[in-house]
Amino acid sequence: MTVEQNVLQQHSQKHQQTLLNQLREVTGTTDVQLLQQALQVSNGDLVEAVAFLTEKNAKVPQQDEATYYQTAQITNDRYISVGSQADTNVIDLTGDDKDDLQRAIALSLEESNRAFRETGITDEEQAISRVLEASIAENKASLKRTHTEVWSDSPNPHERKRMENCPVGLKNVGNTCWFSAVIQSLFNLLEFQRLVLHYSPPARMQDLPRNQKEHRNLPFMQELRHLFSLLVGSKRKYVDPSGAVEILKDAFKSSESQQDVSEFTHKLLDWLEDAFQIKAEEDREGEKPKNPMVELFYGRFLAVGVLEGKKFENTEMFGQYPLQVNGFKDLHECLEAAMIEGEIESLHSAENSAKSGQEHWFTELPPVLTFELSRFEFNQALGRPEKIHNKLEFPSMLYMDRYMDRNREITRIKREEIRRLKEHLTVLQQRLERYLSYGSGPKRFPLADVLQYAMEFASSKPVCTSPVEDIDTTAPPGGTIAQLPPPASAGEQPDACVSAEGSGSGLQASQQQQQRVSIHKPFTQSRVPPDLPMHPAPRHITEEELRVLESCLHRWRSEVENDTRDLQASISRIHRTIELMYSDKSMMQVPYRLHAVLVHEGQANAGHYWAYIYDRHHQRWMKYNDIAVTKSSWEELVRDSFGGYRNASAYCLMYIDDKKPFLIQEEFDKETGQMLSGLDKLPPDLKVFVEADNKLFEREMEEWDALQARKLQQEKLALAAAAAAAAAASVAVQPMSTEPCSPDNTAPQHDPEYMEQQSPSGDSKHLQEDTERAISKAAAEHDEKSPEALLNTAMKVEYTRLLRLAQEDTPPERDYRLQHVIVFFIHNEAPKKIVERTLLMQFADRNLGFDERCKSIMKVARAKLELIKPDEVNMEEYEMWHQDYRIFRETSVFLLIGLELFMKKSFVEALMYLIYAYQYNKELLAKGPYRGHDEELIAHYRRECLLKLNEYAAALFETGEEAKVNTGLSIMNDLVVPCLPLLLVDEMEEKDMVAVEDMRNRWCSYLGQEMEPNLQEKLTDFLPKLLDCSTEIKSFHEPPKLPSYSTLELFERFGRVMTSLTMGRTPADGR
């Protein structure tokens, strides 16, 4: 059987598989043979097939509620099989009445069949259309949103500009991450990319019958070519796939539903196959047409088996090969199980058994081998699909030799050997378990330890004491007072008591007996044995008995340990033998290299998709997450794809034939031999298309630059006007000076605002007082010195004071960096010239005291400033250091206000302050460890604030009241969700990752609960935003405006907050 000879038969097989999927979804039955039997009995009538299975199986399990509500709002990606009920009408499948069940299924199928008769479109195609239409609707609705969301485009086109040679991302146009993951995986197959880019529509397209498929496929191919060309040559960081999505949406009648992305991939390849088939038939008139899509993605296997005692062999085609995940630990175990169905012992026996079963053997593997991992199973009790989070390992290089038909006999021999080894392994493991879990009761221990404990017991020496000595009698129950007992007679000492203390034990025992006090005994009839050992020990054992017992126990323990080691070594050898069973060269001739892994995070009803794709040119893994394309690693892929960790796992694996390099080989110019890249890879029509789009983008950047230049000019004019008005006002109120104006007094000083203020209050007053104290101390030491000498001495005095503050080992509540910029500079080893100029600026402040000594020193300081040459102090570096200090103060204010609000439980208001405190602090710490505050502290309260808001929003949602639900979702959409990428961007912060998972799991847990349809609709609309794993911040809230604090006020208030954190109390608010 070949594709060229019988395309109709191929589609018939696909239709049969679709019916099987529908039947499996409706009934929950997973037995393939039973499903096929039902279809045969019913002659393909799905209603009769369901009736057959319903009669055959037990009653449907009842639920607590009579009705299970199932809404069908679109989220990022859905796992509802083709043909499942997907509209918002409620169908009760929980009762015992089979007639109700039959009518519900019949009604659903009647609607589906009527739609197919009218439009020629299958349920499978309609389901895909529903996803696409909802995605477009979501994209249009997003344009009407008033609040900023993290996936919106940045208004600055330069932030959307593609970096050189970086891959292009795909914009999520509304729950289309599944589309991005699939398209990027296919696009990075260079052979597939070439086929799409160089596809040309049939020349006789006008003469072709414009049936539904052609009306859909040919425009879609053209749009896909445009999309691929932009991915090749666009200057944008990411491109918009709405054109392709629109074409797909318009091809179908639609209603709301959810769609399994694996089914979408399957149908996408079908559409491409149909489009290439039209072209192939035109190019090869009279010949057997070859379809490149079929040759690239489809293979064949031989089904060999026995059905009711009769042997059979059938050759079948396959595209995506489905594999069950539940119950298996790695990909080979999945494949082994998938290749054998039913009981196959009869396949190799000569007897005509009535058993049924079959084996699959690949006769031809496709160049691109795709495995569809089934991580969803239908829960019949709950009436919905559930995700399987089990761990499943898969290799980067997969050898398929053991599954090939040409190796059938060798593989059967090896499988039999593995089966025998596993049986032996089971026996050894059971024997080992008896050694490691010894005993007959509920508690069991390793036998070697049991023998060791017995030996320790036998070797113990008893220490004589009465059990009442261990009882605290200082406060007897019932309020009675402890009294000393009468002296005990010598006759009361037990003869069997063996003292471990030697000859002095008699006196010590007598002293202890005198110290004993009476014990409150509520039951006078209860008697405690007069003397017991302090720890378990033999009462009577001779030296001979002990020697024999120790000898036996030592020997037995040694024997047990040797037996345990031997069993463990044997088990390890068997494991190693099984692992190496297929490692000989003859079974490593069909290598397939992992090309792409498509990952899903979330639950069955909601989640997010992204892809890991191997870049062969740069020998590294890349992560394609919508618009974000980042470098990755095998370790990150393993963590996100194997499953068992968080809620992320692979659902599709794409392997490529390692012996066919053309699949991922770059294209070269035939004349020059140079590798083609960028626009050179495109045919002429697509080259023109991409160049036009690039010109539009360049024009957008030019318009943005012009707009920013105009804004900057306007700001400069406004500042100049404000400065002129301030100068005029200053001249109007300032009295006429009798002294001539010197250059020292008129020279402009562009220095930080915390170094010089216009009024003697706030920072200036605090700084002025410090400066005057330094001058007074210098003058007290040298009364007759010149102003210049006094300035030098005062600067040394002030610097010594600041250096002492910087060298103190102080707690966070006394952070002297907030008191003076030079303390900050000393901590961070600022250049000496920067420190000197800053200190000189302090003494050049015009607001110093009005006595002659201060004035003269201020004039000398200003004169020294004027004499500093540009090459002596790098003013750019000087401004940079002071800018860092300004940012440090702002960060401190953000943190201060955020912590105060957090302690008042004003989490909504506190969040933005803590967010910006962390971001600013992180930038500071990147330049040095002493430029910011404790990063873990800020991260902790940022994380706690988000968790508190999530908890509050979830509690509002649980009330079910419309107003409260909307408020809760608004908190999540406006505050929590935009902040999650900030926690995910640094994946080394494990606590942040766990917090994000906790928040997501809280909301995903609602998927398993019954709720009103409007709540379900809101939840399914919200979850994709919460589960979006993109770590790129597209846009964000503006930072809150900060109040102005003086240096002393900031220092004291910051200290109060830090002290409160240490003592666990809320700081007093106040200035």
UniProtKB/TrEMBL annotation:
<comment type="similarity">
    <text>Belongs to the peptidase C19 family.</text>
</comment>
<keyword id="KW-0677">Repeat</keyword>
<keyword id="KW-0833">Ubl conjugation pathway</keyword>
<dbReference type="Pfam" id="PF22566">
    <property type="entry name" value="UBA_8"/>
</dbReference>
<dbReference type="GO" id="GO:0006508">
    <property type="term" value="P:proteolysis"/>
</dbReference>
<dbReference type="InterPro" id="IPR003903">
    <property type="entry name" value="UIM_dom"/>
</dbReference>
<dbReference type="GO" id="GO:0016579">
    <property type="term" value="P:protein deubiquitination"/>
</dbReference>
<dbReference type="InterPro" id="IPR050164">
    <property type="entry name" value="Peptidase_C19"/>
</dbReference>
<dbReference type="InterPro" id="IPR018200">
    <property type="entry name" value="USP_CS"/>
</dbReference>
<dbReference type="InterPro" id="IPR001394">
    <property type="entry name" value="Peptidase_C19_UCH"/>
</dbReference>
<dbReference type="InterPro" id="IPR038765">
    <property type="entry name" value="Papain-like_cys_pep_sf"/>
</dbReference>
<keyword id="KW-0539">Nucleus</keyword>
<dbReference type="GO" id="GO:1904888">
    <property type="term" value="P:cranial skeletal system development"/>
</dbReference>
<keyword id="KW-0175">Coiled coil</keyword>
<dbReference type="InterPro" id="IPR054109">
    <property type="entry name" value="UBA_8"/>
</dbReference>
<keyword id="KW-0378">Hydrolase</keyword>
<dbReference type="GO" id="GO:0004843">
    <property type="term" value="F:cysteine-type deubiquitinase activity"/>
</dbReference>
<dbReference type="Pfam" id="PF21909">
    <property type="entry name" value="USP_UIM_N"/>
</dbReference>
<dbReference type="Pfam" id="PF00443">
    <property type="entry name" value="UCH"/>
</dbReference>
<dbReference type="InterPro" id="IPR028889">
    <property type="entry name" value="USP"/>
</dbReference>
<dbReference type="GO" id="GO:0005737">
    <property type="term" value="C:cytoplasm"/>
</dbReference>
<dbReference type="InterPro" id="IPR054108">
    <property type="entry name" value="USP25/28_UIM"/>
</dbReference>
<keyword id="KW-0597">Phosphoprotein</keyword>
<keyword id="KW-1017">Isopeptide bond</keyword>
<comment type="subunit">
    <text>Homotetramer, inhibited form. Homodimer, active form. Interacts with ACTA1 (via its C-terminus); the interaction occurs for all isoforms but is strongest for isoform USP25m in muscle differentiating cells. Interacts (isoform USP25m only) with MYBPC1; the interaction prevents proteasomal degradation of MYBPC1. Interacts (isoform USP25m only) with FLNC (via filament repeats 17-18, 20-21 and 24). Interacts with GAPDH. Interacts with SUMO3; the interaction sumoylates efficiently USP25. Interacts with SUMO2; the interaction sumoylates efficiently USP25.</text>
</comment>
<keyword id="KW-0963">Cytoplasm</keyword>
<comment type="function">
    <text>The muscle-specific isoform (USP25m) may have a role in the regulation of muscular differentiation and function.</text>
</comment>
<keyword id="KW-0645">Protease</keyword>
<dbReference type="GO" id="GO:0009953">
    <property type="term" value="P:dorsal/ventral pattern formation"/>
</dbReference>
<keyword id="KW-0788">Thiol protease</keyword>
<protein>
    <recommendedName>
        <fullName>Ubiquitin carboxyl-terminal hydrolase 25</fullName>
        <ecNumber>3.4.19.12</ecNumber>
    </recommendedName>
</protein>
<dbReference type="GO" id="GO:0005634">
    <property type="term" value="C:nucleus"/>
</dbReference>
<dbReference type="InterPro" id="IPR009060">
    <property type="entry name" value="UBA-like_sf"/>
</dbReference>
<keyword id="KW-0832">Ubl conjugation</keyword>
